[in-house]
Each structure stands twice: as C-alpha cells, then as structure tokens.
Amino acid sequence: MAGLYKGLRATTLAGQTGKVRRTQVVNYIMKQGTTTGCTLGIIASFYSCIALGVTWLRDKEDTANTFIAAATTGVIYKSTAGLRSIGLGAAVGLTLAGVYTLVTDNDNIWSKARYNRL
Questions:
Q1: Which one in 27, 37, 49, 60 has a CA-CA gap of 20 to 30 Å to 67?
Q2: Are 94 and 70 in contact (CB under 8 A)?
C-alpha cells in the first residue's frame, strides 16, 4: 500500500499519464515491497535468534520468552535511532507479543472465558 501511495503521488506530481504512469506505479510498488520484505525478514531473524537464546538460557519454554525476545528485538532494531526510539521499539515489541499471546495461548483468561472454564 505504501508503494502504491508513493507511486500515485509521484506520478501525479510529475504529470505522467497512461502506460508510463502505470509502469512507474508498478516500479514503486515493487521497490517498496522489496524494502518492506527485507525489513520484516531482518526483524523475524532477530526475534527467532533471541527467542532461541532466551529459551536456551532460561531452560524453560513459556510466554515470558516471547515477551523478552519481542522487547529485545525492538531494542536492537531501533538501537541506532536514540533512546526514545529504543523505548518505542521495546513498547511495540511488547505490544505485539501481548497480542500474539492473547490470540495463541490456550491457557490465558480470554480462552478460559470463551469456553466457560473460569
């Protein structure tokens, strides 16, 4: 979507029409898709390696590993952008880990309420 938006905006400002505009928009979409894919791949690699390391160090496999790995991934990914960005990266990681845990963990309060096991 970001590539589509950037492509439409740039081609409109440049006054392009027809086939040239279509080609430029497709180029913007492909370039943005590649960039986003690489970024998500790096974040996934960080998270996987950190989660594996935390599991190995703690010798446990529980939801705390998910939260630790997600927060650490956010910190490392944003580590070159300053302290405020580091905190924001950790907060985003913790939020995503919380949502993931609520959706996938069968032993949380939401799943117990859904199946009337409270």
A1: 37
A2: yes
80: how many CB neighbours lie within 10 A of its CB?
8
Q: What is the pLDDT of residues 82-106, one digit of tens each?
A: 999 999 999 999 999 999 988 887 6
* Integer Cα distance of 112 and 117 in angstroms: 5
State the CB neighbour count (10 A cutoff) for residue 97: 22
Global confidence as pTM: 0.73
